[in-house]
Amino acid sequence: MPNRYLIVGVTAVAALLLYIDRVCISILADPIQMDLDLAPQEKELALSAFFFTYALFQIPIGSLADRFGPRLVLTVSIVAWSVVTALTGLAWSFGSLLVFRLLLGLCESGAYPAAAALVKRWARPEERGRFNSIVLFGGRIGGAFAPALTTMVGRSLVGVGVAAVVIGESAVNWRGVFVLYGVCGLAVALLFWLFVRDRPQVEPDRSTTPVASPPTSFGRMLKLVGGNRKMWYFGTLQFCINISWAFLVTLLPSYLKDANVEIGLRGTIQTGILLAGCVGMLLGGLLTDAVNNRLGPRWGRSAPTATLMTVCGLMIVLVSLSPGLLVVVTALAITSLCLDLSLPSLWAYAQDVAGPNAGAVFGFGNMLGNFGAALSPLLLGAVSRAAGWEGAFAVCASCYLVAAFFGLLLDASKPLDAAITSPQTDSVG
Question: What pLDDT does residue 180 have?
Fold first, then answer.
C-alpha cells in the first residue's frame, strides 16, 4: 500500500505541472500577440478564456472524482491538458488560440477538486492543513518558476523547429515551449497513475466520514450546495480573491512592460513575487492546523483568512499610490505571501464541511473563484486603460477587503447539511 506522504508528494508534482502549463502564457503573451497580430483586447480575452471553462466545469468534474475516484479523474485530466498544451504551440490565429485556452481550462478544471478529494481520503482531520499546503505548494512552485523557466526554455529553443519571435533584443520560441511542456505532462500522468491510489486500506478520518458513505447524487448535491448560504460566502470570498490574485499570473508582465522593464527581468520579478507565495503556502498549513487546534472550527478557519485578506488589501492600497518599482514589487510579494498563507485554511474548510462530497463542495467555491479569475484580465485591463494601473490596483485592494469580510463569516463547526454528510437513499449514478 502506498505511503500517504508519497501520495501527497506525487499529487504536488501534478499540481506543479498544472501551474506551469497555466502560467507560462503570461510571460509568452507579448511574443504570441506579436506573432499572431493580436489586439490588446484579444490578448486579454485569451488570458481570460482559460479561467471561464476552468470555473464552469469545477463541480461536474469534482463530482466525477467523488464518484469514480480521484486517481482516475486526475490521471485523465493530466493527459488531456498536456495534449492541449502541446496543441497550443500550433495556434495560427486568435480563434485557434482562444479555442485551445478554453479547452485547457476544461481539462484542468478537475485537478484541484480531485486533489482535495484525495487529501480528504488520506489525511486525518488534524493534518489536513499540512497535507493541503504540500499540494498547494507544488502548484505555487510551478507558478512561481513558470515565468523564469519559460523565458529560459523559450530562448533555448530558438532555432529549433519553428521561427522565433524577436522582441527588442530577445528572441523567444513560444511554440516550442508549449510542445515541450505538453510532452513532459504525459510523463507526469504515467507517474501519477503508477503511484497513487484512491484511498488507504484504513480510512484516516473514518470517525467523521465513514468509508461506506456514498457521495450524494449529483442533482441532490448541486441543490444542497447551491442553496446553502455558507457556500455562497465561501464562493464570494474566492471570487474576490481571484480577481486580485489573477493579476499576478496574467497582467503583471504587461504592467512591468509599461514600466519599461526588460522581458527577461519581467520573468524574474514575477517569479520572485510568486516565490513569496510558496513560502506562505508551506507555512499556511502549519498555521491553519495550529489556529484550528487552538480556536476550534468556528474561528480556526475564518480568523486566518480574514486577517490575511485585510493585510493583502492594505498592501495593494500602497501599490495604488504609485510608489517606486522596488516598493511595488515588495508590496506585491507580501500580498502573495499572505494570500497563500490563507489558502490551506480554505481547502480545510471545504473538507471540514463537505462529508463525502469534498470534490464537489471544493469545486463550487473554486468555480466562483475562477469566474473572478476569468473576469480579472478583462476588468483590470479595461480599468488600466481608462484610469491607469493605479485604478486597477484600487479595484484589487477593494476586492481583498471584501474577501476579508466574507472570511469572517466562514463557520466550519457544522456540516453543510445533515443530508449531505449522511448515507443517501439516492442512487449513485
Answer: 94
Cβ contacts of 131 within 8 Å, gap of 6 or more: 8, 119, 122, 123, 285
Domains of the chain: 4-198+218-421 (1.20.1250.20)
> Average pLDDT in the 133-148 region?
85
Instruction: Specify the range with the lowest mean pLDDT, choosing from 82-96, 121-135, 144-158, 206-220.
Output: 206-220
Q: Residue 65: is its pLDDT beyond 90?
A: no
Per-residue model confidence (pLDDT) at position 110:
84
The number of residues making up the chain comes to: 429
CA gap 269, 195 in Å, rounded:
35
